[in-house]
Design brief:
Layout lengths: L1 H13 L1 H22 L3 E2 L8 H12 L7 E8 L6 H14 L5 E5 L1 H95 L3 H86 L12 E8 L8 H13 L5 E5 L1 H4 L8 H18 L2 H25 L5 E2 L1 H30 L4 H28 L7 H32 L6 H8 L9 H10 L10 H4 L1 H16 L7 E2 L11 H13 L7 E6 L6 H16 L4 E9 L5 E8 L6 H11 L2 H8 L8 E4 L1 H35 L3 H26 L4 H4 L7 E2 L2 H29 L4 H30 L7 H31 L8 H6 L8 H7 L3
Parallel strand pairs: 1-6, 7-12
Antiparallel strand pairs: 2-4, 2-5, 3-4, 8-10, 8-11, 9-10
Helix pairs in contact: 1-12, 1-13, 2-10, 2-13, 5-6, 6-19, 9-10, 9-26, 10-11, 10-13, 11-12, 11-13, 11-26, 12-13, 12-25, 12-29, 15-25, 15-26, 17-23, 17-27, 22-23, 22-25, 23-25, 23-27, 25-26, 25-27, 26-27
């Protein structure tokens, strides 16, 4: 490989403009393809197969609208309560937003709140109606009882009187018959007596006889008159009895009519009483549902803050930035007078402008470090130019492929971050080697080719190590993390190609201007620099007089102090790691003056922190439910969910078409990044067995599905945590194999691996202290401490492993060469450390500043990555590789280079530093 790179360096010097032009054309082509492809990045991160993702997949089938992406908008009346005019204006504005392309619907908070208030009023009115109905029915029943008693008494009186009247009629009729018979007999007797009188008178009966007969007639007439009076009296009795009976029959009809009315009243009251329990039951279930949703509001109680919701046509990970920008632009441009509008992170999160102020400052500082090291602006500008060109190509390719591959928003950022730092360093290694050789008197083109074959070979192996570590992220089985590793590896690959082709070509055009004026004057005067390559220095040292004064190096001179001091610092920095929590940043992590943070704090103030990250719950039933049973089931489940500690409100949102799934929105009492909210998600998932046993939901985890931001974070973190041991083990095994191959030693790789673990632990400890504990929050703009970025530990392990092996190669390979060339173990450590420390210090400093610039990025997800990489490089390069490793190797002495003979025979000679090439081509 060294010989191949040597020839490639020769070719680049002869065809410099062809090489430079080819890279520039490649940049133009990739930028053009990126522009035409219009790649999109997703701000959402998901892992197929997790519980939360399975619920989301189910939502797409059962509740299509619920699977769409959404974002909240907060309106704040800046001077008192919302006026009717402001409310109407906001409603009109939201209706216009609903008409924008890509928008499914917009929730008007005032309408939703009014609907809820109306429902509460209806329930109260219903309760009053039921209560009044109960009173009316009780009063009616009382009146019916009293009326029935009166009717019964009247009926009794009428019945008794009717009996008496009928008896009187019968008696009067009998008297009439008897009186009439007596009258008839009297009339007949009177006729007979009159006939007898007439006969007697005609016969000339004596006067006494006639008088007797006349007296008899008079007596009969008196009896007839008496009989007539009886007839008249009996007739009057009959008429009176008949009239009485008629009146009593009329009274009976009245009683019958009243009885019919009373019976109808009874039937009506019974029907009302039958309906009352059903209405009362529905009312009760409605009251239970509203009780669970009491704390859910879209307009604050004081009517000063309202939270609207914008629903997109597509899931969150498919909504393009243009749609979000259009919504944000319209909302901010048409806000009513006296109203403040703030937009949530879901609506404003964008990865546009990857290089912000912090990143540019980091690049400028790196350029200053290069100038201080190289002493010339021309030479200092080359590594920066090479890195920027390589990053431009890598980022353009990434964004082009983003049009056909769904990738996270941090994917190109990671590539830019690594591409800048590594691109500068790799170019610097070759440039620095070339400068040293020039100052030693080597011819220009030969020096370029030899630097490319030696340091370029080390760059190749260093880059290969980083690439392998990044590509190995695919072993985690986490798609978005594997993509991040793949495209970051692409940036490293391009950086390596730039270093071994573009850098030699540009150097050849620079000529001796890569040296400062002072260095060029010294070279012209024939003064040879003592800054020779590592292997040459080692060879010269081996040939020096044994009595000559030996060079010193602090870590070798004071190994125990160095080991204890470096280890103590690393372990102390690693202490916070024991308390690490993983998650994703929410709106509270955004800058204080950002609209995302203002939206978060306003919503928290008005509706509680949980309103910034509601939980979605889906209950799956064994049997469909309809009508009252559906209402009761909703009330039962809402009440059970609301009873879980940490739940502020539960709102039934929808029922699937097949009536077997019920969707709930759960409002936590704490924010998305709070540990209590994570506990709540676990408690809700643990509720499934109880719901299955009591309310007929599906058994197992299928009964109650939980998803949402917090649930997804928990699942992602759990998946990453489970994949971490495999990945870390793979990385450690890989490091041992590579280092055994390079250094032909057993203990050196072990030391390197232990040092790597210490630097990773210290790095994560610092990240936890800053972002989770808020330590130095004023410096890093951490005003609301939150969990550590969920994928950061895994990603840092991969990246820091590659970078740590870079520094291990550049420092310890020099020690190896010095030892092989005859120096004793201690002096070889000193020679290698002294020859490589300058370039490693410069390279590590550049990385620290470049990564440190990203620690102050305008993108909150990028900040912990930048700080972690900056601290990791600082710890690994300066504490582990330059202090701990040399100190341990000094104590181990020549045993550090021990390797079994059988293994030494079968290992290929990779000659990382190109020592053979140097001996073959070096010209002194």
């Amino acid at each position: 490989m060294a010989e191949l790179l040597y020839r490639l360096g020769k070719l680049a010097t002869r065809r410099a403009w062809v090489v430079i032009t080819a890279w520039l054309l490649l940049l133009a082509a990739t930028v053009t393809s990126m522009t035409l492809a219009g790649g999109k990045l997703s701000t959402a991160m998901s892992i197929p197969g997790t519980q939360a993702q399975l619920v989301i997949d189910d939502l797409k089938k059962s509740f299509p609208a619920a699977s769409h992406g959404n974002a909240s908008v907060v309106f704040h009346a800046t001077s008192g309560k919302f006026t009717d005019a402001q409310t109407a204006a906001i409603g009109s504005e939201l209706r216009q937003v609903a008409k924008l392309p890509g928008i499914n619907s917009v929730m008007n908070p005032f309408t939703v709140q009014a609907t809820k208030d109306h429902q509460i009023a209806n329930l109260k009115a219903g309760a009053r109606k039921v209560a009044n109905g109960k009173v009316q029915i009780a009063d009616g029943l009382k009146q019916l009882v009293e009326g029935q008693a009166k009717l019964d008494a009247a009926q009794k009186t009428v019945t008794e009187n009717l009996a008496k009247a009928r008896a009187g009629l019968a008696q009067a009729t009998a008297g009439y018959t008897q009186a009439n018979t007596a009258l008839t007999q009297a009339q007949m007797g009177e006729a007979q007596a009159q006939a007898a009188y007439d006969s007697a008178a005609a016969a000339g009966a004596p006067a006494e006889q006639l008088a007797a007969i006349q007296a008899q007639i008079t007596q009969i007439q008196a009896g007839a008159a008496q009989a007539q009076a009886g007839v008249d009296a009996a007739s009057a009795g009959i008429a009176q009895a008949t009239a009485g009976i008629t009146q009593l029959k009329a009274a009976q009809q009245t009683i019958d009519d009243n009885q019919a009315q009373l019976t109808a009243g009874k039937i009506a009251l019974n029907q009302a009483a039958d309906k009352l329990p059903a209405a009362e039951k529905k009312l009760y279930q409605g009251e239970r549902i509203l009780a669970a949703a009491t704390n859910f509001r879209t307009v604050s109680k004081d009517n000063t803050i309202a939270q609207a919701n914008v629903v997109f046509n597509l899931p969150t990970d498919s909504v393009d930035a243009a749609t979000k920008k259009a919504v944000a632009a319209y909302l901010t441009a048409h806000v009513p007078a006296g109203v403040q509008v703030e937009l949530s992170k879901d609506l404003t999160q964008s990865m546009e402008g990857i290089l912000g102020v912090g990143e540019i400052v980091g690049l400028l500082v790196a350029a200053v470090v290069l100038f201080l090291m190289l002493g010339t602006f021309v030479a200092a500008g080359l590594p920066v130019l090479a890195a920027i060109l390589g990053v431009g190509i890598g980022a353009s390719i990434t964004m082009t492929l983003a049009s056909v591959i769904q990738m996270g928003s941090t994917t190109p950022t990671l590539g830019v971050m690594l591409g800048l730092a590594v691109g500068i360093d790799y170019s610097l290694f070759i440039l620095n080697r070339h400068r040293r050789q020039l100052k030693a008197g080597m011819e220009l083109r030969e020096s370029i080719a030899l630097a490319n074959g030696t340091s370029g070979n080390a760059v190749f192996f260093a880059g290969l190590t980083v690439i392998i570590a990044l590509v190995a992220l695919n072993l985690t089985g986490i798609g978005f993390l594997g993509l991040m590793g793949d495209f970051a590896a692409l940036s490293i690959f391009i950086g390596v190609l730039m270093a071994v082709t573009f850098t030699p070509a540009v150097i050849s055009r620079m000529g001796l201007r890569v040296l400062s004026r002072k260095e060029r004057r010294a070279l012209a005067a024939g003064v040879e620099s003592t800054d020779a390559p590592a292997a040459t220095a080692a060879t010269d040292a081996s040939a020096a007089d044994a009595s000559a004064k030996k060079p010193s190096y602090f870590a070798s001179k004071h190994p125990w102090i160095s080991i204890v001091g470096a280890t103590a610092v690393l372990v102390l920095a690693a202490i916070p790691l024991a308390s690490m929590r993983l998650g994703l940043p929410d709106g509270s992590s955004e800058p204080l003056d950002s609209t995302q943070y203002k939206a978060y704090t306003l919503a928290t103030k008005a509706f509680g922190a949980g309103s910034n990250g509601m939980i979605v719950a889906v209950a799956s039933l064994e049997k469909p439910v309809t009508g009252y049973q559906q209402l009761k089931t909703e009330a039962d489940l809402a009440t059970e969910i609301a009873a879980v500690k940490g739940v502020s409100a539960v709102v039934p949102a929808s029922v699937s078409k097949d009536k077997t799934k019920i969707l709930f929105t759960v409002l936590p009492t704490t924010g998305p990044a709070n540990a209590h909210t994570e506990t709540l998600v676990r408690d809700l998932r643990a509720l499934s067995p109880k719901l299955a046993a009591t309310y007929g939901t599906l058994p197992g985890d299928k009964g109650l599905g939980i998803t949402g931001l917090v649930a997804s974070n928990i699942d992602v973190s759990a998946k990453l945590s489970s994949a971490l041991p495999l990945y870390l083990g793979t990385v450690l095994v890989l490091s041992l194999i590579v280092l055994i191959l390079v250094f032909r030693s057993i203990l050196v790789p072990l030391i390197a691996s232990v040092g790597f673990l210490l630097s990773v632990a210290a790095t994560m400890g610092v990240v936890v202290a800053v972002y989770q504990f808020g330590f130095l929050g004023n410096i890093f703009d951490v005003h609301d401490p939150a969990p550590v970025l969920s994928f950061l530990p895994t990603m840092l392990i991969g990246i820091l492993f590659g970078l740590a092996m870079d520094y291990q190669l550049f420092l310890v390979s020099g020690m190896r060469e010095a030892y092989v060339h005859g120096l004793n173990a201690r002096d070889a450590v000193i020679a290698g450390a002294r020859s490589g420390r300058a370039v490693v210090v410069a390279a590590a400093s550049i990385m620290v500043f470049v990564f440190g610039g990203f620690a102050f990025s305008h993108l909150t997800q990028v900040r912990p990555i930048g700080l972690g990489l900056a601290v990791g490089v600082l710890a690994d390069a300066f504490l582990v590789r330059m202090i701990l490793v040399p100190a341990l190797m000094t104590l181990l002495g020549k045993s550090a280079w021990w390797i079994p003979k059988w293994l030494d025979k079968i290992l290929p000679d990779v000659d990382v530093e190109g020592a053979k090439l140097e001996r073959t081509h070096a010209i002194h």
